[in-house]
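The record is kept unedited without comment:

——
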Amino acid sequence: MLVLVIGYALLTGFQLFLQIPMDWRLAVSKFLLAILATAVIELLNRQPLAVRDVKAGHGQHGDAHFMEPEEVKRVYQEVQQGHEAQPAMLVGASKSTWLVDTSDQSVLMVAPPGAGKSTSLYIPTITYNARVNLHTQDAQGIGQGASMVLVSVKDDLYTITSAELKKCGYRVLKLDLRNVFCSCHFNLLYRVNIEIDAWRKEQDAKQRAVHYATAERYAKVIASAIIGNTGSVNSGDSSEYFNETARGLITGLVLLVSQYGQDGERHIVSVFNLIVELAGADNPEKGNTVQKSRLAAMLEGVTDRRIKGYISTTTSADIRTTLNIVSSALSKLLKFVDAELEQLICTHDNDLDAEQFIERPTAIFLIAPDENETRHFLASLFVRFLTDDLIALAERQGGHCPRPFYYFLDEFGNFPAIPGVTSLFSAIRSRGGRILVAVQSYSQFLLKYDKNVTEIIKDNCQILLNTFVSPSAQDTATSISKMLGDETILTGSSSRSDGKTTSSHQLMGRPLMSPAQMVRIQRDTWIVEKAGYAPMKTHLEGYWKYLSLAPQEQDTTSENDYLEIKLLSTESLRQALGSAPARPHAPSAATREPRRKLGASRREAAALYPGKFNP
């Protein structure tokens, strides 16, 4: 429209110009040219009222910048597909190459739901490490691929990658807390049972002490996971006294079940059953007006002072307090009242042991159903137990596991707090392991951990990987923006007054990415921050765009047979306490003498339970 108006004006002006007498045309032409020249000069000299911000200076107000291609090549490794040879974490990918980080540093991934954690990062990283194993296999078919534990609320990782892993020589296991009849078995007491069995057989006093102490440590870990952890902000009971005494009670009963239970009875459900049967007052002896709990009466027949020490904190109180403590412990154990779950936790598969996990490249898929959070604590406990076993294995191997191992902990903030999580991160790294922790935002940590523990977890992750942030997660967006730092820019302004233009320029700092820009990051674009280096923008898109995986095979895992659950009852426990000594192998009189002094306790127990104890 403007062109038409200008054209019409020029045409009209030209027609008027033709009507001017010839003598005046030259003067009019000069006048019009002068006006036109003045207008052009004015337009050329006019400056905008603002100066466009540009990078400038020498980092006076911040030198943050994203990596240039040359920097990327110095920090990360570019690997052609088909030439994978070293286990690593993926930080970028294309149709023909991988961009990987081969350091020993743990990774914290921050990404909201729908950001593509599984499809863009997990599945490609699993595939890369599977192909490392394929290309490094020896004559026995065992490669150098990293063993992996993959915790997820969904079954898609297993469905998509299991065939590829098997093709590349991996041992693939599934601990499925959703479909327990198609799962490996995980007995919470298996390490306690192993150490108690070794303690029974051992003749050397020092080694016996080591085995028993190890069994105690695992029993305490179990009790802490059941009662609640000090690092959890939602630990449950308001009374620290009831928490601690209930923790001691469960610790003692775990050791009791492991020592005196028969084959098939040494599991956590037997602990629950004992507490149920011992929750109540015992019938007092004739002529005795002091009422005791059934737990206290049973404890009189126990000869193991360690077990008595753990349980006595409960029985030493008055009977009402004792019963309250027993009720508190019982309420914590209610999570095991699950007919399906009993099929998984009352026996154990040795395939899950740390030795086999390291001996051969192994992928353990740990499925923790998001629709049944009552089973999530088993996932946390499995991670803790496996880590303890790997640390012990590494110490026997000179301080480092012979095979690297990776933990992929998805939805980390939704799982119950892992006992001693702050020490595990550094312990795993120094033993050859790496952890990839995934959360939706930083606030998700605070669901299970207090602020101090959260900060320690974040500090232990030297690599931060994030994509777009949820619009409502302003704290997370602000925190990441601050970590990216500021860049130095040249900015300024200009003003015009009385035909004169003045301008000012200055250097100032500006966030490399503002919180608002963090929200607007495009899908498949990720930012990688590694300690000691500038951040990097990278591209990680859906695996199907550049990977050709082995065809997904239908899950042919045969369902486990129904297991008839055996329980250690108080009746059988009394018989065991009356007939089986707590220390069957006593190499010297020094260890036998204390047992001869316990006859009085046996006689008291015989009076309480006629026919069940032999004084």
Notes: Residues 69-181+349-462 form a domain with the Rossmann fold fold (CATH 3.40.50.300). The CA atoms of residues 180 and 421 lie 27 Å apart.
